């Protein structure tokens, strides 16, 4: 029905606006036949145009649907970005302040670096010094306790066991000062992983208190243990001016 109406409409237009044939011999039938052919050709063109418009419309609709889906995705991403931006704005000021302070501290330290500081950076500072509490007697083969800790740089010395455990490998020097009262013996040995490093003994024959010192160098690896052991029953004392002590320091790593 739609097609017939379109044909009739086109035919009417062509009939109204068309000119009469100039040739007197041409029949009206031929003229109308040509008009009909022209209407049919125009109808085909219109059909093709209409089909093209329909296809274009479908493509536009599909494109709009795709854009709508992308819009939903973009809105979701924008919400995530907005939340992150809020988080960044909240903490960025304090973070930048902390970073700036840290940078200034590093810059200030770097400006103070000299040869001594470089040597210190090459060799970590590992140092401890501990003392006995007062007058004690240590029996043979027992570990001498040094519960009073004055220095424990590197946290290698354990006051509860009186044992130093190396956290940095290198060459160490260990020093023991031992004090004993008159007519008393003190016989001690520096032990490295159960093996004697250095031993010494002292007897105060004049009735006065005396202090003696022994030291030992040792090449120590990480996890090695060093302590002081009594090789015989020993009477030791510590006073404010002088004390029985055990110390060690990393010389070079």
The amount of helix comes to 40-55%
Output the strand order for the largest sheet. Answer: 3-1-12-6-9
Average residue-wise pLDDT: 82
Residues in β-strands, percent: 25-35%
What is the C-alpha radius of gyration, as a whole number of Å? 52 Å
Q: What's the end-to-end separation, in Å?
A: 104 Å
Give unreliable regions as ranges: 16-22
Topology:
Elements: H1 2-17, H2 28-111, H3 115-122, E1 127-131, E2 136-138, E3 148-153, E4 157-158, E5 163-165, E6 170-180, E7 185-192, E8 195-203, E9 210-220, E10 225-230, E11 234-236, E12 245-252
Antiparallel strand pairs: 1-3, 1-12, 2-11, 4-5, 5-10, 6-9, 6-12, 7-8, 7-10
Helix pairs in contact: 1-2
Verbal overview:
The chain is α+β, with helices and mostly antiparallel strands and 253 residues long. The chain has 3 helices and 12 strands, in the order H-H-H-E-E-E-E-E-E-E-E-E-E-E-E. It has helices at residues 2-17, 28-111, 115-122; strands spanning 127-131, 136-138, 148-153, 157-158, 163-165, 170-180, 185-192, 195-203, 210-220, 225-230, 234-236, 245-252. The strands form 3 sheets. It has a 5-stranded antiparallel sheet with strand order 3-1-12-6-9, with no helix packed on it. Helix 1 (2-17) packs across helix 2. The chain is rod-shaped and about 165 Å long. The relative contact order is 0.13.
């Amino acid at each position: 029905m739609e097609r017939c109406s379109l044909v009739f409409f086109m035919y009417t237009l062509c009939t109204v606006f068309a000119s009469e044939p100039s040739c007197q011999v041409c029949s009206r039938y031929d003229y109308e036949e040509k008009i009909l052919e022209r209407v049919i050709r125009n109808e085909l063109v219109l059909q093709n145009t209409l089909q093209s418009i329909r296809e274009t419309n479908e493509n536009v609709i599909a494109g709009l649907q795709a854009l709508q889906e992308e819009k939903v995705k973009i809105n979701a991403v924008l919400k995530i970005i907005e939340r992150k931006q809020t988080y960044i704005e909240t903490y960025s000021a304090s973070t930048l302040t902390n970073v700036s302070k840290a940078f200034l501290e590093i810059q200030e330290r770097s400006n103070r670096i000299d040869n001594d500081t470089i040597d210190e950076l090459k060799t970590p500072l590992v140092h401890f010094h501990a003392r006995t509490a007062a007058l004690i007697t240590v029996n043979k083969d027992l570990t001498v306790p040094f519960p009073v800790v004055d220095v424990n740089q590197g946290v290698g010395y354990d006051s509860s066991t009186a044992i130093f455990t190396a956290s940095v490998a290198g060459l160490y020097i260990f020093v023991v000062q031992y004090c004993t009262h008159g007519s008393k013996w003190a016989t001690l040995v520096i032990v490295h992983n159960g093996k004697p490093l250095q031993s010494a003994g002292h007897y105060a024959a004049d009735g006065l208190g005396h202090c003696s010192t022994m030291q030992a160098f040792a090449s120590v690896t990480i996890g090695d243990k060093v302590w002081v052991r009594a090789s015989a029953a020993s009477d030791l004392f510590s006073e404010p001016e002088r004390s029985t002590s055990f110390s060690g320091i990393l010389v070079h790593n």
